[in-house]
Write a structure and sequence with these properties.
Length: about 300
DNA sequence: CGCAGGCCCTGGTAGC
DNA sequence: TGCTACCAGGGCCTGC
């Protein structure tokens, strides 16, 4: 699942392979891939022919191609989106959604997306920062990222700390994997009240978020399954370094306790039951639900 | 306004 | 073997 380190890995590859090239033609093969482009696929394709890519930029999990017109192609990979730079002779796979051909003889760019949660749109005047994502907060890799401001926002925040980490308008780029990894490093359960964290604990958590994502980037990202690959179709290998995500029942790398998996927002949270104690109030609630009317000890 | 929850989508897999 | 049910989950939308 592409989170910030994976999207940044893709951005670096696109910068190498696409910047400076002129788009010859665009084929939209699935309307859902451009559903956020209100004028439709034909308009999307026609507007891009003849444009030159001047840069590839990113904020959080969004990336965009800056064009010589001052516009931008804004994209989100969703869960399964891939940006592949491949030779034109290579036969298309079953999930090819959008194809970009260039005026040179080089490889083409393919947006491939099995689950179609991802998509592309043309952002008028969006070369520097597309208006469509102006509401997304800075990510921890942004030079202007201000940890103290995020700590202050967390102090005003209602609800659990994990949900706050996943709120892209508070801090961007974090998804389920790195949220769980950073919480483990900080020895915090994700349902701890965000506002109840000390300033020191909140700052430490943000440091762990930055650290784990920087480490993942150095490994080329996390490929938990075959759905995330870089522009050359290669997997990252940070999955070997994950401490909790996907490790249900395996020993905690710190204390040896069996890693637990809990339902969270129609997905899963992974944590260590010993290092990351569940807040007391929720403890009683969950025990009542899952084990009958048993009094929490 | 801020937060919680539902929905979108498909392929792989577990279970019967 | 063949079917069904479930799982992965980020962002957007709605409703309270």
């Amino acid at each position: 699942m592409p989170e910030l380190p994976e999207v940044e890995t893709v951005r670096l590859g696109l910068t190498e392979w696409v910047v400076g090239r002129k788009i010859k033609s665009v084929d939209v093969l699935h309307p859902r891939a451009v559903r956020r482009h209100a004028a439709g696929g034909a308009d999307f394709a026609a507007a891009l022919a003849g444009r030159t890519v001047t840069a590839v930029r990113r904020r959080g999990k969004y990336l965009w191609f800056a064009l010589d017109s001052g516009d931008a192609i804004l994209g989100h990979l969703g869960m399964s989106g891939q940006m592949l730079v491949v030779d034109r002779s290579r036969p298309p796979g079953p999930h090819l959604r959008v194809r970009f051909a260039f005026t040179d003889r080089g490889p083409e760019l393919r947006f491939v997306d099995q689950r179609t949660f991802g998509g592309l749109l043309l952002s008028p005047g969006g070369a520097d920062l597309p208006a469509e994502i102006a509401h997304i907060a800075l990510d921890p890799f942004d030079p202007k990222f201000d940890p103290a401001a995020v700590v202050a926002a967390l102090a005003r925040r209602r609800g659990g700390i994990k949900r706050a980490l996943l709120d892209q308008t508070l801090i961007s780029g974090i998804g389920n994997i790195y949220a769980d990894e950073a919480l483990w490093r900080s020895r915090l359960h994700g349902e701890r009240d965000a506002a109840a964290l000390s300033r020191r604990a909140a700052l430490g958590l943000l440091t762990n978020v930055s650290d784990v994502m920087a480490e993942a980037l150095r490994h080329g990202g996390t490929s938990f399954d075959a759905l995330y690959v870089n522009v050359n179709g290669e997997s990252g290998y940070f999955d070997r370094s994950l401490a909790v995500y996907g490790r249900e029942g395996e020993p905690c790398l710190r204390c040896g306790a069996a890693i637990r998996r809990e339902p969270f927002m129609n997905r899963s949270s992974y944590s260590c039951p010993r290092c990351q104690r569940r807040p007391r109030r929720m403890q009683g609630h969950l025990l009542n639900v899952s084990r009958g009317k048993r009094v929490p000890s």
